[in-house]
Amino acid sequence: MEGGKLIIFSAPSGSGKTTIVRHLLNKPELNLAFSVSATSRPQRGKEEEGKHYYYISLKEFKQHIKNDDFLEWEEVYRDNFYGTLKSEVERLWAEGKNVIFDIDVVGGLRIKKKYPKETLAVFVKPPSVDELKIRLKKRSTESEEKINMRIAKASVELATAPQFDTVIKNYDLDTALEEAYQLVSKFVASDKYENKDASNE
Ligand code: 5GP
Protein backbone atom coordinates (compact mmCIF):
# COMPACT_ATOMS: atom_id res chain seq x y z
CA MET A 1 0.00 0.00 0.00
CA GLU A 2 1.29 3.46 -0.79
CA GLY A 3 -0.03 6.99 -1.06
CA GLY A 4 -0.42 10.10 1.08
CA LYS A 5 0.16 10.70 4.74
CA LEU A 6 -1.45 9.16 7.80
CA ILE A 7 -2.45 11.28 10.77
CA ILE A 8 -3.49 9.45 13.88
CA PHE A 9 -5.32 10.89 16.87
CA SER A 10 -5.49 8.55 19.82
CA ALA A 11 -6.61 9.16 23.40
CA PRO A 12 -8.79 7.78 26.16
CA SER A 13 -12.51 8.01 25.38
CA GLY A 14 -13.81 11.48 26.31
CA SER A 15 -10.50 13.32 25.79
CA GLY A 16 -11.89 15.37 22.93
CA LYS A 17 -9.99 13.72 20.09
CA THR A 18 -13.13 13.33 17.98
CA THR A 19 -13.84 17.08 18.28
CA ILE A 20 -10.27 17.84 17.21
CA VAL A 21 -10.44 15.44 14.25
CA ARG A 22 -13.78 16.95 13.09
CA HIS A 23 -12.27 20.45 13.34
CA LEU A 24 -9.32 19.46 11.15
CA LEU A 25 -11.61 17.78 8.59
CA ASN A 26 -13.27 21.19 8.08
CA LYS A 27 -9.99 22.67 6.82
CA PRO A 28 -9.86 21.97 3.05
CA GLU A 29 -6.22 23.13 2.80
CA LEU A 30 -5.14 20.09 4.84
CA ASN A 31 -6.61 17.72 2.20
CA LEU A 32 -7.76 15.24 4.86
CA ALA A 33 -10.24 12.39 4.65
CA PHE A 34 -11.53 10.43 7.62
CA SER A 35 -10.79 6.73 7.84
CA VAL A 36 -14.15 5.14 8.63
CA SER A 37 -13.54 2.11 10.84
CA ALA A 38 -15.53 -1.08 10.98
CA THR A 39 -17.02 -1.93 14.37
CA SER A 40 -19.11 -4.63 15.95
CA ARG A 41 -20.52 -2.25 18.55
CA PRO A 42 -24.11 -1.02 18.12
CA GLN A 43 -24.86 2.28 16.43
CA ARG A 44 -25.11 5.12 18.97
CA GLY A 45 -27.24 8.30 19.04
CA LYS A 46 -27.03 10.25 15.78
CA GLU A 47 -24.24 8.21 14.25
CA GLU A 48 -24.54 7.27 10.58
CA GLU A 49 -23.51 4.13 8.70
CA GLY A 50 -20.51 4.79 6.46
CA LYS A 51 -19.85 8.19 8.03
CA HIS A 52 -18.93 7.39 11.63
CA TYR A 53 -18.44 3.64 11.26
CA TYR A 54 -19.27 0.64 9.13
CA TYR A 55 -21.47 -1.29 11.55
CA ILE A 56 -21.03 -5.00 11.08
CA SER A 57 -21.86 -8.11 13.09
CA LEU A 58 -19.30 -9.85 15.25
CA LYS A 59 -19.42 -12.75 12.80
CA GLU A 60 -18.61 -10.51 9.83
CA PHE A 61 -15.86 -8.83 11.83
CA LYS A 62 -14.22 -12.17 12.58
CA GLN A 63 -14.47 -13.14 8.91
CA HIS A 64 -12.57 -9.93 7.97
CA ILE A 65 -9.87 -10.88 10.52
CA LYS A 66 -9.58 -14.33 8.91
CA ASN A 67 -9.33 -12.79 5.44
CA ASP A 68 -6.54 -10.44 6.61
CA ASP A 69 -8.64 -7.45 5.51
CA PHE A 70 -7.55 -5.21 8.39
CA LEU A 71 -4.57 -2.88 8.61
CA GLU A 72 -5.12 -3.15 12.37
CA TRP A 73 -7.95 -4.23 14.62
CA GLU A 74 -8.57 -4.29 18.37
CA GLU A 75 -11.13 -5.60 20.82
CA VAL A 76 -11.14 -2.13 22.39
CA TYR A 77 -13.79 -3.08 24.97
CA ARG A 78 -15.04 -6.58 25.69
CA ASP A 79 -17.01 -7.88 22.69
CA ASN A 80 -16.65 -4.50 20.98
CA PHE A 81 -14.28 -4.88 18.05
CA TYR A 82 -12.95 -1.97 16.00
CA GLY A 83 -10.71 -2.10 12.95
CA THR A 84 -9.26 -0.17 10.03
CA LEU A 85 -9.95 -1.91 6.73
CA LYS A 86 -7.03 -1.86 4.28
CA SER A 87 -9.57 -1.11 1.54
CA GLU A 88 -10.60 2.10 3.34
CA VAL A 89 -7.08 3.54 3.41
CA GLU A 90 -6.40 2.39 -0.17
CA ARG A 91 -9.61 4.10 -1.33
CA LEU A 92 -8.70 7.43 0.30
CA TRP A 93 -5.10 7.32 -0.86
CA ALA A 94 -6.33 6.64 -4.40
CA GLU A 95 -8.34 9.87 -4.09
CA GLY A 96 -5.08 11.67 -3.29
CA LYS A 97 -6.05 12.36 0.33
CA ASN A 98 -4.12 12.38 3.56
CA VAL A 99 -5.92 9.99 5.89
CA ILE A 100 -6.88 10.96 9.43
CA PHE A 101 -7.73 8.36 12.09
CA ASP A 102 -9.65 8.49 15.37
CA ILE A 103 -8.56 5.18 16.86
CA ASP A 104 -7.48 3.67 20.16
CA VAL A 105 -3.89 3.88 21.38
CA VAL A 106 -2.92 0.29 20.50
CA GLY A 107 -4.26 0.58 16.95
CA GLY A 108 -2.64 3.99 16.53
CA LEU A 109 0.78 2.73 17.55
CA ARG A 110 0.38 -0.31 15.31
CA ILE A 111 -0.19 1.86 12.23
CA LYS A 112 2.75 4.10 13.17
CA LYS A 113 4.96 1.00 13.34
CA LYS A 114 3.79 -0.19 9.91
CA TYR A 115 4.17 3.25 8.28
CA PRO A 116 6.77 5.15 10.35
CA LYS A 117 7.67 7.75 7.73
CA GLU A 118 4.15 8.45 6.51
CA THR A 119 2.58 8.70 9.98
CA LEU A 120 2.12 11.49 12.51
CA ALA A 121 0.81 9.92 15.71
CA VAL A 122 -0.78 12.40 18.12
CA PHE A 123 -1.89 11.60 21.65
CA VAL A 124 -4.61 13.83 23.14
CA LYS A 125 -4.26 14.19 26.89
CA PRO A 126 -7.23 15.11 29.09
CA PRO A 127 -6.72 17.25 32.22
CA SER A 128 -7.40 14.28 34.53
CA VAL A 129 -9.26 10.98 34.81
CA ASP A 130 -11.89 12.73 36.98
CA GLU A 131 -12.50 15.26 34.20
CA LEU A 132 -12.91 12.38 31.73
CA LYS A 133 -15.62 10.92 33.93
CA ILE A 134 -17.46 14.25 33.97
CA ARG A 135 -17.22 14.58 30.17
CA LEU A 136 -18.44 11.03 29.53
CA LYS A 137 -21.40 11.54 31.89
CA LYS A 138 -22.29 14.83 30.16
CA ARG A 139 -22.23 13.05 26.80
CA SER A 140 -24.77 10.60 28.28
CA THR A 141 -24.71 8.25 25.32
CA GLU A 142 -23.75 5.23 27.42
CA SER A 143 -24.78 3.38 30.54
CA GLU A 144 -22.99 3.85 33.87
CA GLU A 145 -21.39 0.42 33.39
CA LYS A 146 -20.01 1.32 29.96
CA ILE A 147 -18.70 4.65 31.27
CA ASN A 148 -16.90 2.86 34.10
CA MET A 149 -15.38 0.43 31.60
CA ARG A 150 -14.00 3.37 29.60
CA ILE A 151 -12.64 5.10 32.74
CA ALA A 152 -10.93 1.91 33.90
CA LYS A 153 -9.09 1.74 30.58
CA ALA A 154 -8.07 5.41 30.61
CA SER A 155 -5.12 5.06 33.04
CA VAL A 156 -3.57 2.27 30.95
CA GLU A 157 -4.03 4.36 27.82
CA LEU A 158 -2.50 7.48 29.43
CA ALA A 159 0.69 5.52 30.10
CA THR A 160 1.24 5.04 26.34
CA ALA A 161 1.48 8.81 25.63
CA PRO A 162 5.33 8.87 25.44
CA GLN A 163 5.27 6.41 22.53
CA PHE A 164 3.48 8.95 20.32
CA ASP A 165 5.21 11.55 18.12
CA THR A 166 3.56 14.31 20.05
CA VAL A 167 1.11 14.99 22.90
CA ILE A 168 -1.57 17.68 22.79
CA LYS A 169 -2.98 18.67 26.17
CA ASN A 170 -6.70 19.25 25.82
CA TYR A 171 -7.17 21.44 28.90
CA ASP A 172 -8.66 24.29 26.89
CA LEU A 173 -10.43 23.27 23.68
CA ASP A 174 -9.62 26.35 21.56
CA THR A 175 -5.93 26.09 22.43
CA ALA A 176 -5.93 22.36 21.62
CA LEU A 177 -7.69 22.95 18.27
CA GLU A 178 -5.16 25.60 17.26
CA GLU A 179 -2.23 23.45 18.35
CA ALA A 180 -3.57 20.49 16.38
CA TYR A 181 -4.08 22.66 13.30
CA GLN A 182 -0.52 24.03 13.39
CA LEU A 183 0.94 20.59 13.91
CA VAL A 184 -0.99 18.90 11.10
CA SER A 185 -0.45 21.82 8.66
CA LYS A 186 3.29 21.53 9.17
CA PHE A 187 3.22 17.76 8.80
CA VAL A 188 1.19 17.65 5.58
CA ALA A 189 3.42 20.33 4.05
CA SER A 190 6.64 18.49 4.91
CA ASP A 191 8.40 15.72 3.00
CA LYS A 192 8.91 13.84 6.19
CA TYR A 193 7.97 14.74 9.75
CA GLU A 194 11.03 16.60 11.02
CA ASN A 195 10.80 15.36 14.60
CA LYS A 196 10.99 11.74 13.54
CA ASP A 197 14.25 10.19 14.70
CA ALA A 198 16.60 7.78 13.00
CA SER A 199 14.94 4.75 14.62
CA ASN A 200 12.06 5.29 12.20
CA GLU A 201 14.27 5.12 9.14
P1 5GP B 1 -16.37 4.70 20.38
O1 5GP B 1 -17.14 3.47 20.77
O2 5GP B 1 -16.40 5.75 21.47
O3 5GP B 1 -16.77 5.25 19.04
O4 5GP B 1 -14.84 4.27 20.22
C1 5GP B 1 -14.18 3.60 21.22
C2 5GP B 1 -12.69 3.62 20.96
O5 5GP B 1 -12.38 2.83 19.81
C3 5GP B 1 -12.16 5.02 20.69
O6 5GP B 1 -10.92 5.17 21.38
C4 5GP B 1 -11.95 4.99 19.21
O7 5GP B 1 -10.97 5.93 18.84
C5 5GP B 1 -11.49 3.57 19.00
N1 5GP B 1 -11.56 3.13 17.60
C6 5GP B 1 -12.42 3.53 16.63
N2 5GP B 1 -12.13 2.95 15.48
C7 5GP B 1 -11.05 2.17 15.68
C8 5GP B 1 -10.25 1.33 14.82
O8 5GP B 1 -10.48 1.17 13.64
N3 5GP B 1 -9.22 0.68 15.40
C9 5GP B 1 -8.92 0.81 16.70
N4 5GP B 1 -7.86 0.15 17.17
N5 5GP B 1 -9.64 1.60 17.53
C10 5GP B 1 -10.69 2.27 17.03
What does this protein structure show overall?
The chain is α/β, with parallel strands linked by helices. It is built from 7 helices and 9 strands, in the order βαβββαββαβαβααβα. The chain has helices spanning 17-25, 58-66, 86-94, 105-114, 129-139, 144-158, 173-189, and strands spanning 6-10, 32-34, 37-39, 53-55, 70-77, 80-85, 98-102, 119-125, 166-169. It has a 5-stranded parallel sheet, sandwiched between helices. A 4-stranded mixed sheet has the order 4-3-6-5. Helix 5 runs antiparallel to helix 6 (144-158). The longest helix has 17 residues, at 173-189. The structure holds guanosine-5'-monophosphate. Guanosine-5'-monophosphate (5GP) binds at residues 13, 37, 41, 72, 74, 76, 82-84, 102-104, 106-107. Residues 13, 37, 41, 72, 74, 76, 82-84, 102-104, 106-107 line the site of guanosine-5'-monophosphate (5GP).
SSE blueprint:
Blueprint lengths: L5 E5 L6 H9 L6 E3 L2 E3 L13 E3 L2 H9 L3 E8 L2 E6 H9 L3 E5 L2 H10 L4 E7 L3 H11 L4 H15 L7 E4 L3 H17 L12
Parallel strand pairs: 1-7, 1-8, 2-7, 3-4, 8-9
Antiparallel strand pairs: 3-6, 5-6
Helix pairs in contact: 5-6
The chain binds guanosine-5'-monophosphate.
